Amino acid sequence: MIPRSLLVALVVVLAGLPAHGQEISWSFGPPMPIANSEFGAAAIDGKIYAVGGFLERNEHALLILDPRTAIWSRGPDLPEGTHHAGVAAVGSKLYVISGTSIENTMVQIFDSASGEWSRGADMPTARTALATAVLGGRIHAIGGTGDIFSGSAKTAHEVYDPATDSWESRAPLPFRSEHVLAAVIDGKIYVVGGRDNLVTRTRTQIYDPATDSWSAGAPLAVAASGHAVEAVGGKLYALGGENLVSGTVSNQLQRYDPAANEWTLLEPAPQRVHGVASAVIGDRIFFLGGASIAGSAFGSNIVQILNLPAGEGGGGPGDGQLEAPKKLKVKVRGAGRVRLKWRDRSKDETGFQVQMRRAGKKKFKRVASVSANIKKVVLTGLKPGTTYTFRVRALAPGRKSDFTNEVTVTTEPAN
């Protein structure tokens, strides 16, 4: 529940948030339907998907926030309950990587277009409390532990490719770390904080996929584990976290500038949190739930929003405007089959969305989503002898590109 002291603050209906100035500010969003901690979240098509969580009542939960309406809804339950999972979005799909569950290697996939869950290939190294980051349409699973109560940590670094449903190993972390978080800036993964042997760390470790190697960045101003980390506007933002040795929980907001290789402290959040989930929508970072007592499984339903200066946003793996795909071509390949092909111009998209409009209809509908760097798709099951119009756009967390040119074709008539 939201502490009484916070109820006097304005609980913001998102449409009524104050105009952004040149400085950051904090506000509150609509409370989550359940109190939760040690869960994950990601943004898909402008909505926030929060999944799993501590305590048996939360392990199967899938909650969806639409910031445009400030309304939470409940999606279909996670088939296998989990907490401390790595959560990431690629295209229209949400990926829940392991966590503390029946199997600490499983990958559960939610398709936001169909509303259905499925299973992916198991992660090679069993672990929980790991970091995930999306780079080039693939999910990097980094660090973690075999048991959240053991204090031991891992250096494992494995990459999942949704297009092939397969895993491969990459250079391990230089230091063991669990309850660790990561984000991507300019094609590099920044792994921030975490702990090993129950000692919370200040480390910033930077992975360069071009060389499959790690380097050290400046240490955090305040050590953090079980915190939240997001990349927006070419900078990292880290919030909160716990320190089991001192028994404290932080509300510190820290920002990292890669150009200066420096962390600075900004205005603290209203509420101290660890085990907090986060997602980026535009120029706002949503920090969801979390616990205020170190080591506690009892979370809150509070939603704290960091409002960044106008134009700072963009969110997710890259920054700035997504380049729209171009030169869409559509060829009819039978009575109910067409092939779409386009040119990919963006460098940091996480997927592409295909939309279709049938002749006589006013609105386009999403009909397919593909992973990053995929530049064609075949659609089947269309009506013979029917005219359709197609368009495609690139997606990344919190961002959408403009659409391609629209192409209209008529499927072949039935025999």
Could you characterize what this model shows?
This protein is mainly β and 415 residues long. The chain has 2 domains: 4-307, Neuraminidase (6 Propeller); 326-410, Immunoglobulin-like. Helices cover 1% and strands 42% of the residues. It has one helix at residues 4-7, and strands at 25-28, 40-44, 47-51, 62-66, 71-74, 86-90, 93-97, 107-111, 116-120, 131-135, 138-142, 157-161, 166-169, 181-185, 188-192, 195-196, 199-200, 204-208, 213-217, 228-232, 235-239, 242-243, 248-249, 253-257, 262-266, 277-281, 284-288, 303-307, 326-332, 338-343, 351-358, 365-371, 376-379, 387-396, 399-400, 407-410. The strands form 10 sheets. Strands 31, 32, 34, 35 and 36 form a 5-stranded antiparallel sheet that branches. The protein is globular, with a radius of gyration of 21 Å.
Give the gist of this structure.
With 415 residues, the chain is mainly β.
Q: Which descriptors apply to this entry?
A:
mainly beta; Neuraminidase; five-stranded antiparallel beta sheet; four-stranded antiparallel beta sheet; 1 helix; 1% helix
Q: Number of domains in the coordinates?
A: 2
By DSSP (H or I, 4+ residues per run), the number of helices equals: 1
Estimated share of beta-strand residues: 35-45%
The shape is: globular
Report the top-level CATH class of the largest domain: Mainly Beta
What helical percentage do the residues reach? under 10%
Indicate the structural class.
mainly beta
Biggest sheet, open or closed, and with what strands and sense?
A: 5 strands, antiparallel
Distance between the termini: 63 Å
Low-pLDDT regions: 1-22, 314-320
CATH superfamily of the largest domain: Kelch-type beta propeller
Proper CATH architecture of the largest domain: 6 Propeller
Could you tell me the CATH topology label of the largest domain: Neuraminidase
Average pLDDT reading: 89
Radius of gyration: 21 Å
What is the number of E strands? 36
